[in-house]
Amino acid sequence: MDGTYSQNDLSHVVEADKAHVWHHLVQHRGFDTKDPNIIVEGKGMRVWNQAGKEHLDAVSGAVWTVNVGYGRERIAKAVYDQLLRMNYFAGAAGSVPGALFAEKLIDKMPGLSRVYYCNSGSEANEKAFKMVRQIAHKRYGGKKHKILFRDRDYHGTTIGCLSAGGQEERNAQYGPFAPGFVRVPHCLEYRAADQGAPTQNYGEWAADQIEQVILREGPDTVGALCPEPVTAGGGVIVPPDDYWPKVQEICRKYDILLHIDEVVCGVGRTGTWFGYQHYGIEPDFVTMAKGVASGYAAIACCVTSERVFDLFRDDASDPMSYFRDISTFGGCTAGPAAAIENMAIIEEEGLLENTTTMGDYMLDQLQALADRHAVIGDVRGKGLFLGTELVEDRETRKPVAEAQAQAVTADCMAQGVIVGVTNRSVPGYNNTLCFSPALIATKDDIDQIVSAVDGALGRVFG
Fold first, then answer.
1. Strands 432-435, 420-421: parallel, antiparallel or unpaired by DSSP?
2. How far apart are the first and last CA of the chain?
3. Fewer CB within 10 A of the terminal residue: the chain, N end or C end?
4. Superkingdom, according to UniProt (predicted)?
């Protein structure tokens, strides 16, 4: 830390924070006896708090966001220059960075053509849900309105998104939820036995379960399916290779729109621009947020095919025919200005290739860690998005207690390494350590992360 802030400055910041800030995902009673953690500075993959303690960030801002690392001056300068020229105008009009980033983004997404700007992943998913519902009213008399979501997937914090949320503990105490959202089973092969699934062709079996739900609900009532390409907060679940092709086949069979939630996986996290691109599928909607600008400005996008867009291109004399929606801060120009530079950095520095290479290396290192610690039941991941599921016994695959998994992350934090863990999400299965280091990660960074986990597992589980 460069000492820009004096100790008096930081002491005041801490007191102001304790007195007035309502933190995300935190029980504030704990601040009665300790200070909140204030992140003061970041550079590359490292951050410093108010005490000057350095941490290697293995989760890209704690929520899978800072894909190109901290301290990128060219992104900050692009935002500064754009804000001086034109900071905001409502999205009914266009902007220079909005048009240019949309062009660059669509170039990475063959088969898709339109970008609807908003300011968060939750909001991007809400836009897609609203489009599906409006299409149902415009084309199907309101009947084909149901939206399928997958167990253990997560799509955002609004009541609408929680209605499509497959994590009971995130939903608890926030109901009643919106009608018309229907759950389908997850696709975690490691937990196939819990589903009574066969040991052969699990991916096809998991896809078939979606079809069974469609037939139960009535195909003429189902408008869309909304899954993550790789489940994130539900346990870093990588689908079997035979899963996605079968899912797309089912959607086409019943004229169901496929909405892929790329809020976590998008813009390089898995080693391709988007997670769905590993599987050769062609979605109708793709939503994204976190890594689009690596956290340097707020931006989210709901991207659609021209087929979807054309469903709203009706006679202008009908005042109810267009998509009657607005996102106030979707009109901010800082987001697309930052996103243009973010994408340029990924291309110029070969970060997709680095993500694949370092992701393979980290997967190998975590698997080697499993050879030393029987508590690791499964290692899985795609690119620099990985998880290790902790179990009491490899034969029974009984999950460790959530408190034990959290003790591992606390130990890593004490060592100066920030790792993630599923928590307060899926009852009984909050037992997966989560890793999503920035796409700039080196072997030395990964070795430090794995070493911290190694030590923590030894201390927590003996």
1. antiparallel
2. 35
3. C
4. Bacteria
